[in-house]
Write a structure and sequence with these properties.
Blueprint lengths: L13 H26 L6 H26 L6 H17 L6 H18 L2 H9 L5
Length: 134
């Protein structure tokens, strides 16, 4: 039987790894959108374009880092991933009509799946078991 202390991912249940994987994918896509936005900055709106690009790149990077930490599992990663899923649900709701309905569905489904996996009892137990001693 593998030693969880030697390989921290062994201590992570499948549902927590699923939440971590969803967070990493969401973060990577968001960071890429930030880079794309940086290359699409219009000369008339430089400040808005640059701040939007920096925000999306930083937000995506934070989500990737949190997802990787959640895989291990690290207690500090639960908060940012949980908050990000609530943001995604809000974004999905704002996009639910019009030509972006497909995007709203993708965002909502990924957020709900991540939340369900993150709040699963096995995930909570794994995170609590890896809480550092006070």
């Amino acid at each position: 039987m593998p030693d969880p202390a030697a390989d921290p991912s062994q201590a992570s249940p499948a549902v927590l790894r699923a939440a971590a994987a969803i967070a990493v994918v969401q973060g990577a896509v968001t960071a890429v959108l930030g880079v794309v936005e940086a290359f699409a900055v219009d000369g008339d709106r430089v400040v808005v374009g640059v701040t939007t690009a920096v925000f999306f790149a930083a937000y995506g990077l934070l989500l990737v880092v949190s997802g990787v930490a959640l895989w291990r599992p690290r207690t500090w990663a639960r908060g940012p991933v949980l908050a990000a899923q609530l943001v995604w649900l809000g974004v999905a709701y704002s996009l639910h009509s019009g030509s972006a309905t497909w995007l709203a569905v993708v965002l909502a489904v990924s957020a709900v799946l991540c939340l369900a996996a993150l709040l699963h009892p096995a995930s909570i137990r794994a995170i609590e078991e890896n809480r550092p001693a006070d």
